[in-house]
Every structure is written in structure tokens, then in C-alpha cells.
Specification:
The protein has 325 residues and is an alpha/beta fold. The chain has one domain: Aldolase class I (TIM Barrel, Alpha-Beta Barrel), CATH 3.20.20. It is built from eleven helices and ten strands. Strands 1, 2, 3, 4, 5, 6, 7, 8, 9 and 10 form a ten-stranded mixed β-sheet that branches. Helix 7 crosses helix 8. It is globular and about 70 Å long. The two termini are 37 Å apart.
């Protein structure tokens, strides 16, 4: 390579058209997935205090919101359910007439070209807020939880979910869900595995939104230590071996190094979840005038794509899609 002055990298940065032509990473509405919270029995929508611009939706409202996302070029939504009642086992998770199941049917009927993905976990449905069935000592019983997750995934697939996304971080859950889906005739339903899900401080706003804060203890015994990158790859590769079709890293920005390593190691489609805490940091800084929201959001989402994400799940999806258009 010639040295300066013959080599001048600024030559390719001078005009917008030329900059676009040599851009290495693209960001488009088709890369995004919008998370939606649907609450059983709710009429209309209600704001979530910890997440400005994000609401809990009733059935009619979630159909409208999904339609608006689709009109902006966003190809998929992912649903999180809030039941009317909770119990120790989270039985509402696999209720065929539950909030998510009803929403899947309603959205797919109204917007048949929109992909409706579903989060598969029990934390929104249990009265203790943990992601599985508890033992007498209060710890989560990994193996007993697997059957419940399988039931939930089958119920979502029966309702018409385009893919199911287990987020519980139980060992062996991808294989258990794959077997349950296959046994019930849903061999073509993909699994998007939350494979590297870290025990993160950035989940606080989501837990308020979904009503899933643990009543005691924390989730560090099953979610990953933020210090461990090699273990993240082990988790991902185990999920791939159990039949995951897409793997996910969550959160996104604090774990871009993990995201890159996962993409290089698997060459599978990789998703990244830009979580509630990441969302509200930008919102808060923009509200005080410390940064420009549009510029910060698009830069952040582009960085997630550059690190290896084929799919970005983000609460900024609708705004980003409008800005990109």
C-alpha cells in the first residue's frame, strides 16, 4: 500500500453518495425486530413508566402497533405476555387462550406477511418472578422446567408463531423444545435461542414492563456471568448442537465482542437484543440535550450490525425505520 501523500483515505469520505458506495455495514428496517408487550384483559394501551415511548398493549392495540411496524418495513415483532393472574408454575404461559396466543392469532390474521415471534419463558407468568419451577429450597429446578417450556413453545406454535425464542437459560431447553415441537407436528417451526444471555443490570426497565422482577434472590444461577466470553461460546455451541436455528446475544452493546465471536464461531444467523436499559440510556441523554437521539440510535444499531448481528431486536425499531426511510 502506498504511503501518504499518495494514499489519502479522506478521498472516499468527501460526498454522501461516495461514502454510501463504500460503506461496509448497512442498516435497514428489514434488519429490525420490534418487541411488544401484550397484557391480558387490557383495553387500549398504557405507558410503561421506565421506558418512554413504550406501552403495554391490549389485543386491538397490539394489532395496530404491529401493523404500523410492518408498514415501516419492519419484518417481525416479538411478543411478551402479561397474564391476568400468576401462579408458582406459570401455567398462563401455555394457556391456548393466553395473552400471547390470542395476540399471535390476531396479528397474523390482520397482517399475514408480518413474522410474529414469541418469547418463551416463565418469568412473566410465575408469582415469584423466576424463569422456572422452584424446588422447596427456592432454587430453580432446571430439569422440571424443561417440560413447561416445551408446552409453552407448542402452544405458541399452535397459535401460529413464526418462530419461538426461549429466553430462560435453562440447560438443555433448546433440545427439549425441539423435541416437543417435532412431536406435535411443528418440525418446521424455528427456534431462536437466547444462547448468550448475561445476568445484566440493563434488564431493569424490561422487568417493570413485564412485571417479572424476582420476588427474592436473582437470576445469576442461570443467566451468564458478564465476565465470561469463552463460556458464552460454549453456551452458543451447545444450543446449536441441540437444534437452534438462530442464536442470540443479550444485551447488545456491552457484549459486542461476544457478538463478533459468536458470528465467527457459528456462521449461523445471529440476533442481538438491544435491551430496555440500553434504550432508556439514549432516551434519557437525549431528553437532557446531551446527545442527538436520531444520530445516537442509528450509530448504535449500526455498531451492533457491524459486530455481527443479522437481526437487531430493539425498542427503537419504529423510530429507526422512519429515520432510515
Amino acid at each position: 500500500m502506498s504511503a501518504f501523500p499518495r494514499t489519502r483515505l479522506r478521498r472516499l469520505r468527501r460526498t454522501g453518495a461516495l461514502r454510501d458506495l463504500v460503506r461496509e455495514t448497512t442498516l435497514a428496517p428489514s434488519d429490525l425486530v420490534l418487541p411488544l408487550f401484550v397484557e391480558e384483559g387490557l383495553e387500549g394501551r398504557t405507558p410503561i413508566g421506565s421506558m418512554p415511548g413504550v406501552d403495554r398493549h391490549g389485543l386491538d392495540s397490539v394489532v395496530r402497533e404491529a401493523g404500523e411496524a410492518h408498514a415501516l418495513g419492519i419484518p417481525a415483532v416479538i411478543l411478551f405476555g402479561i397474564p391476568a393472574a400468576k401462579d408458582a408454575d406459570g401455567t398462563g404461559a401455555w394457556d391456548d387462550e393466553g395473552a400471547v396466543q390470542l395476540a399471535v392469532r390476531a396479528i397474523t390474521a390482520a397482517h399475514p406477511e408480518l413474522l410474529v415471534l414469541t418469547d418463551v419463558c416463565l418469568c412473566e407468568y410465575t408469582d415469584h418472578g423466576h424463569c422456572g419451577r422452584l424446588r422447596d429450597d427456592g432454587s430453580v429446578d432446571n430439569d422440571a422446567t424443561l417440560e413447561l417450556l416445551g408446552r409453552t413453545a407448542v402452544s405458541h406454535a399452535r397459535a401460529g408463531a413464526a418462530a419461538v425464542a426461549p429466553s430462560d437459560m435453562m440447560d438443555g431447553r433448546v433440545g427439549a423444545i425441539r423435541e416437543a415441537l417435532d412431536d406435535e407436528g411443528f418440525a418446521d417451526t424455528p427456534i431462536i435461542a437466547y444462547s448468550a444471555k448475561f445476568a445484566s443490570a440493563f434488564y431493569g426497565p424490561f422487568r417493570e414492563a413485564a412485571g417479572s422482577t424476582p420476588a427474592f434472590g436473582d437470576r445469576r444461577s442461570y443467566q451468564m456471568d458478564p465476565a465470561n466470553g469463552d463460556e458464552a461460546l460454549r453456551e452458543v455451541l451447545l444450543d446449536v448442537g441441540e437444534g437452534a436455528d438462530i442464536v442470540m446475544v443479550k444485551p447488545a452493546v456491552p457484549y459486542l465482542d461476544v457478538l463478533w465471536r459468536v458470528k465467527q464461531a457459528t456462521r449461523l444467523p445471529v440476533a442481538a437484543y438491544h435491551v430496555g436499559g440500553e434504550y432508556v440510556m439514549i432516551k434519557a441523554a437525549a431528553a437532557t440535550g446531551h446527545l442527538d437521539e436520531r444520530t445516537a440510535v442509528l450509530e448504535t444499531l449500526t455498531a451492533i450490525r457491524r459486530a455481527g448481528a443479522d437481526i437487531v431486536i430493539t425498542y427503537h425499531a419504529k423510530d429507526a425505520a422512519q429515520w432510515l426511510q
